[in-house]
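Input for the complex:
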Amino acid sequence: MSHLKTPATVAGARMTGLGAYRPERVVTNDDIAPRIDSSDEWIQERTGIIERRFAAPEETSASMGAIAGTRALADAGIAATDIDVVIVATFTHRHATPSAAAEIAHLVGATNASAFDISAACAGFCYGIGLSDSLIRSGSANNILLIGTEKISDVTNYDDRGTAFIFADGAGAVVISASDVPGIAPTIWGADGSSMDAIIMQPDNFTAAREGVPSLLTMEGQRVFRWAVGSMGEVCERALDAAGITANDLSAFVPHQANLRITNAIVKKLDLPESVVVATDIQYTGNTSAASVPLAMDALRSQGQLKSGEPILMVGFGAGLAFAAQVALAP
Amino acid sequence: MSQEDILAGLAAIVNEVAGIPAENVQMEKSFVDDLDVDSLSMVEVVMACEDKFGVTIPDTEVKNLNTVADAVNFIAANK
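Predicted:
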């Protein structure tokens, strides 16, 4: 039997650059409240959201992702042509095929890269971190551009009292490169398709096309809240255990920005010490699904609260009911 | 566990989750209309009740728990 060669493995991978794109248009709660007979106060109480950003009509998840990606490359000080793999987490790419990643790789000039999307909704970015770490440590890639990007304003039902005010648009990206020292700890991840109807685009794409109706995002808020609050604390604890550290060693907690009430409930369950900075970017960004974790990292950095090289805990959770968490060193 | 004990335990949970004074949590009170417990806080109350009383309160049952008495009776019947 032939002996096939495999690449030499690498000690570790770490985030070396961070980029973000926030669309220009600010949308306040007062802009959204009248159609659902609600108010600024009601929305803030239930979600923590004060305002969010919506993309312009001509912007797409790919165009926004390309801007965030270019910024991450500049931040890492690496050429686009040195990127081996472009991975994009999104559920709002315009085309079921080809991928947003192929479009973005072209837009940023990553001409030597393979490119593909991952479909894990709000957990997508953290899935991508775990996947990138594995690709790099196995020797399959040296430099990866990972992007979370969403234009959810195109698939939101503005008459739905449960979701009209939650979702928003934006993009965030990181460059992940091989490193002598591990910078990404094991990913704790999973999914539960038995609850696939809890957050789902309805009607499905084929029915929508046949019947000429839009396929929009629907969510059973209480059910998702219960799942997230009931189980993400333990998932985060497992990620800390897998990294071999405790909450006291963290410099920041960057959860998916689903709802400030969920973040607060997880923080309480984890009993995080005061020294751990908690990302609350949802207040000014809304829930941007796959883009929320890198956007929240960017917000912390803008505030001088993201300490490069210090451990942060990330967790993503959402449709599918997919989730992923890991500790990583901040870019 | 008596009905009074369940009510006292529930009142402590509502106080912890929503900041409502425990003495205001009385049998005839509506969670939403009288106690101002919103839908997400109600989920937290239900989860805390499951831990404290060792009952299972399915998602489909939560919407039927309109008053404090509804919750106390459900817990008493399903313990």
